[in-house]
């Protein structure tokens, strides 16, 4: 277990780094805002702590495999060549430096990931150096899937994959976070409840006719149709053809 003073010092260092990042690089520390009507309930979510622990364990496993590889490759070189042990210090220094950057980026990625739900849309924002923000209207949602691998079951979380109209072209190797027709909500602790919330909004959006802005409105019944010049020209040709047929029959 990490000693309390060490843990507190690490928290102070991270808070200072976070303050510098948000001020210098203009990284938003609040969830994204969705346009909503007055009184509309907006839900803001972040990945669960199990997702953060899962990413830390994956990081330490990667660091361990890297150090083992260096040891397996470096030991024979030290025994069979003129390489001295101090020559490996820069290599180990680079590994430690990249490891420190990677470990901090895990926390930054956790603190900058947001999922915001309104009555009409879902907005996903993630990223540290480059911010990615995706908005999905519930009227376009076709399916919501729960994805959970073996390690995700150990850490008790799942991913929600939201497929929208026009999707289905990506294979299993496609990067979900970069697919424009798929929304990925990673690190969800209770995926079934969130999926039900999203599907309720999908059903409510469709029953209320809350489509996209480019939807074509249906003319009211009884309204006079508006004829374009092309329609009128086609009708004239039909009338002329009918007149010729009648003349032949007479």
Summarize the structure.
By secondary structure, the protein is of the alpha+beta class. It has helices spanning 4-24, 49-80, 89-111, 150-154, 191-207, 229-249; strands at 43-45, 114-117, 121-126, 132-137, 141-147, 158-164, 182-188. The protein is elongated, with a radius of gyration of 29 Å.
Mean pLDDT rating = 80
Detail the poorly predicted runs: 168-173, 211-218
Largest sheet: 4 strands, antiparallel
Computed CA radius of gyration, to the nearest angstrom: 29 Å
Total count of helical runs of at least 4 residues: 6
Please give the order of strands in the largest beta sheet: 1-2-3-4
Please report which band the strand proportion falls in: under 5%, 5-15%, 15-25%, 25-35%, 35-45% or over 45%.
15-25%
Distance between the termini: 105 Å
Helix content: 40-55%
Number of strands: 7
The SSE order reads: HEHHEEEEHEEHH
Q: What is the general shape?
A: elongated
Find the structural class using helix and strand composition: alpha+beta
């Amino acid at each position: 277990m990490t000693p309390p003073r060490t843990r507190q010092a690490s928290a102070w260092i991270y808070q200072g780094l976070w303050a510098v990042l948000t001020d210098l690089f203009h990284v938003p520390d609040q969830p994204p805002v969705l346009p909503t009507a007055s009184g509309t309930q907006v839900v803001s979510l972040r990945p669960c702590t199990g997702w953060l622990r899962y990413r830390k364990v994956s990081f330490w496993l990667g660091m361990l495999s890297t150090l083992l590889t260096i040891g397996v490759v470096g030991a024979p070189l030290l025994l069979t060549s003129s390489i001295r042990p101090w020559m490996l210090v820069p290599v180990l220094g680079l590994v430690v430096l990249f490891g420190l950057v990677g470990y901090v980026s895990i926390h930054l990625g956790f603190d900058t990931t947001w999922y915001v739900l309104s009555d009409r849309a879902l907005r996903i924002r993630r990223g540290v150096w480059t911010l990615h923000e995706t908005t999905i209207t519930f009227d376009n949602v076709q399916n919501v899937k729960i994805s959970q691998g073996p390690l995700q079951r150990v850490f008790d979380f799942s991913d929600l994959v939201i497929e929208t109209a026009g999707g289905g072209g990506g294979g299993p190797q496609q990067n979900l976070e970069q697919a424009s027709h798929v929304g990925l909500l990673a690190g969800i602790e209770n995926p079934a409840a969130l999926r039900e919330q999203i599907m309720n909004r999908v059903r409510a959006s469709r029953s209320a006719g809350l489509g996209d802005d480019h939807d074509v409105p249906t003319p009211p019944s009884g309204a006079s149709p508006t004829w374009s010049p092309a329609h009128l020209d086609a009708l004239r040709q039909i009338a002329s053809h009918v007149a010729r047929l009648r003349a032949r029959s007479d």
